[in-house]
Amino acid sequence: MKTLKFQKFRYFITENHTLLNENQSKDEFLSKIFKARYKFEYYGNSYEYTFRYFSDSLNVVLGTIGRYSEHPYYDDTLARNTNNEYEFAFVIINLNHSVEVDKNAQNIYLQCNKGLSTNVYSLLKALAGKINNNEDHKIFINPENLAKDHFWDAIEGHLVTKLIITYAPKNLFSHKALTDLSKELAENMNAQETKIVIENSSASSTGLELNNKNSHKFMEEVLDDTSKGAASLKVYSKRSTCYNSESNNEIIERSVEIFSDNLTNESTIVNIVTELFSRD
Fold this sequence. Notes:
The chain is α+β, with helices and mostly antiparallel strands.
């Protein structure tokens, strides 16, 4: 038996003309993006994302990210990977795109492998940058995190002077649960990114009031958006960062126990995916 650890993310894709002009379905469009191979740079090294397997029944893509020099030669077992002898990690991408139908829609799970990177979110963002090259769509990836559980304790005792809230862009898949504010601003103001800065940092400032009746309600809405990956949140005092929803220890982490080394065995993949997506 082996234990694999994954971090959880949500992807957003902006509207694009290629999809409209070629009359592709959204399912076909997503498949084209993720059932592919990309070579990209990350901190001066070459990496590669490779599509490995697709499950029709689960509508899930299994891929890998690894260092380019080693990646093409690995076998289909988990044994070396979990011992960090090979530097690659497994990526599970949910191609379902309606949270009304599937609460895990547009989720990505990336295996934590310190031999590959100590910050898998940065690695995913580098991959997204490569996918976005020379395309008229853009993919954005945000972590799902523990903001609702940790935020109030994290800022306790701090004189908070600034909040930066960054909302995901208008999403190609227009489900209400993820897109309200960014969709409205994109449609009315042609905004691709929505960033709200709230600040009171003058020398005589007593800081921002976050916990009165009205501000607490606003912050709970922000924390809800942040927790499901629809926004990111950074909070500052005069001297330090009090809270960062994108920090590594805030990203939701899941562990899965497996009993087979053979990833060509669909039952192994089904077990991993079911374990990951059934807990939320």
